[in-house]
Amino acid sequence: MLVVDISGLNKSFSRDKRALNNVSLQVREGEMVALIGASGSGKSTLIRHIAGLLRGDRDGGKIEVFGEVIQQNGRIARGARKVRADIGVVFQQFNLVSRLTVLTNVLTGMLGRVPAWRGSLCLFTKAERMRAMTALKRVGIDGHATKKARNLSGGQQQRAAIARTITQGARLILADEPIASLDPASSRKVMNTLDRVNREDNVTVIVSLHQVDYARDYCARTIAMRDGEVVFDGPSTELTPEFLRELYGEYSSELFAPAPDQVPAKSRVAEKDLAFASS
Ligand SMILES: Nc1ncnc2c1ncn2[C@@H]1O[C@H](COP(=O)(O)OP(=O)(O)OP(=O)(O)O)[C@@H](O)[C@H]1O
């Protein structure tokens, strides 16, 4: 089954430059696909279009999700709202409401599925709370359920955001640079969590990443973008450093994590400590 089907997607924020240029791609159910590219290549813009948060140009092509048209030629389709209930989005930052507890944040995943009056008052049933707690347990942070979201580390917040998509019952997760501001140990935990949700629940995942190492380690398929165009779509195993250097030219250095000897000694120690830290 096709989960995402994009044909001829164009997006211009200004007259002289297209942020997305004739993007066409398909993603099948159960895939975990990495979206890589240098800064400004169009990863976030593409993800926002699939989520129905941005509209393409008037000649902007078509996006279907789960067989339903989400948008076509710059118009959001009528059925988009219903489809959005099945799409969970995890952003790089601002994922959670910082003053609310972790549990309440995760419960907001249910908002599309409970009556509006109950949702607005944050009145959730015991079964709904249990569902949220189960999701928190699965991502390994149930011990933090009653804490305010702002008191969690960046990695824990991202895992809470993934727990929210589990509670939502999302069948497609769009993760927009979920590990961009995390240390390596936290990044692994977040990627492991996405990987488990993908494998255990057959949830389709599209995850944009700055660095190619994570794409190779976690995703069988990678889509690479440059200047708003798809320049590679294939097995992640083909993403050798030589291939990427050729593909990205001057931008290629952005795609690799710094070698350990390029990281200042102080942060190397912190990294080592974090690798053994619990959640
Ligand atoms: N709201 C906006 N208004 C104007 N231009 C925008 C807007 N959002 C994105 N762009 C432009 O569109 C292009 C693609 O940006 P996008 O954020 O999608 O890239 P990206 O690959 O996600 O980059 P990064 O990895 O730095 O997040 C860039 O040239 C960017 O400046």
UniProtKB/TrEMBL annotation:
- Provide the species name: Thalassospira permensis NBRC 106175
Q: What is this protein called?
A: Phosphonate ABC transporter
Q: Which Pfam families match?
A: ABC_tran
Q: Which residues belong to any copy of the ABC transporter domain?
A: 4-252
Q: Which UniProt keywords apply?
A: ATP-binding, Cell membrane, Membrane, Nucleotide-binding, Translocase, Transport
Which SUPFAM superfamilies does this entry report, sorted A to Z?
Answer: P-loop containing nucleoside triphosphate hydrolases
Give the domain of life: Bacteria
What NCBIfam families does this protein's entry cite?
Answer: ABC_phnC
